[in-house]
Design goal:
Distance between the termini: 34 Å
Strand content: 15-25%
CATH topology: Rossmann fold
CATH architecture: 3-Layer(aba) Sandwich
Number of domains: 1
Structural class: alpha/beta
Order of helices and strands: HEHEHHEEHEEHHEHHHE
Helix content: 40-55%
Bound molecules: S-adenosylmethionine
CATH class: Alpha Beta
Length: 275
């Protein structure tokens, strides 16, 4: 049987500067939805697991200016970019960054009094190992927030069969690389298995139709970029053809134009306690 490690799986979107820019716009674009119920007023020393280019770090610092944040990420290019982006905050000692696998950190037990995870666990083969390691580094009473995708929930009207096929390949590719595009629905179980307590989960709903045309248009644009960001990887691995990418692009343009269009997606956010 293949040995499971918690190191990073191949990253679907790559580490290009275009992708790094996408992470910054994504963090601010989704901020009202991701942060609506996040309350870190009681934390002072926060561990951000899988901080990437520092996009959420900067949102966290803006919303909770008293925080000191330690970010950990397994990717050197992301860490290098995060160091450039957060150089001012690093000099001010509001942020410290560590290039490490989040399942094997060197922090002492009970170092932190809060933890934050966003769009990370879909990319790892053993999310429980990361959550257990996070728990080890938390003081008793600390709160962890984890926000993750649940990709089975995507729906767009008008029906777009090429997009459905492409999305299936996108998710199946991530699954074969030992990631988990459906990790959102499993957050409760994963946190429980890792040893967290008082676990609550809530759905973050992105449901836009003719009642909210501006948000609907923004989300269709954002998702078109997100879907296309996986195209180089999917084309290289021969999961999709150029034709399918063109058909999907045309379908998405139609969804964007259609007066009756619907965008629907659900992510999952968990809040739990280290006791
Ligand atoms: C989609 S990015 C999200 C980054 C950030 N949380 C955000 O929302 O912008 C996922 C990040 O997880 C990191 N990652 C994947 N596996 C990891 C691991 N085992 N330990 C630490 N970081 C990991 C990747 O390098 C990548 O930067």
């Amino acid at each position: 049987m293949e040995k499971k490690t918690a190191r990073s799986v191949g990253y679907m979107h790559g580490f290009s500067s275009k992708e790094q820019d996408r992470l910054y716009s994504q963090a601010t674009f989704l901020e009202p939805f991701v942060y609506e119920h996040i309350d870190l007023r009681r934390a002072t020393n926060l561990l951000e697991v899988g901080c990437g280019v520092g996009a959420q770090t900067s949102v966290l610092l803006r919303r909770f200016p008293h925080l000191r944040i330690t970010g950990v990420d397994a990717s050197k290019p992301q860490m290098d970019q995060a160091r450039r982006f957060l150089s001012h905050e690093i000099r001010q000692k509001r942020v410290a960054l560590h290039h490490a696998d989040a399942s094997k950190t060197k922090f002492a037990d009970g170092t932190f009094d809060g933890a934050f995870i966003c769009w990370l666990l879909e990319h790892v083969p053993d999310p429980v190992a990361i959550l257990r390691e996070t728990l080890r580094t938390l003081k008793s009473g600390s709160i962890i927030y984890a926000t993750e995708v649940h990709n089975a929930s995507l729906f767009m009207e008008p029906y777009s069969p090429a997009t459905v096929k492409y999305w299936m390949e996108f998710n199946d590719h991530q699954w074969t690389m030992r990631g988990d595009p459906f990790v959102g629905a499993k957050l409760g179980n994963l946190l429980l298995k890792a040893g967290f307590q008082n676990i609550e989960t809530r759905l973050i709903q992105f449901h836009f139709d003719s009642r909210t045309p501006k948000q609907r248009a923004e989300f269709i644009r954002y998702w078109t970029d997100l879907l296309l960001s996986g195209a180089p990887t999917l084309l290289r691995s021969k999961r999709v053809t150029k034709d399918l990418v063109t058909q999907m692009t045309n379908e998405l343009a139609l969804v964007a134009k259609s007066p009756e269009s619907v965008f629907f997606y659900t992510a999952v956010q968990a809040r739990a306690q280290a006791l």
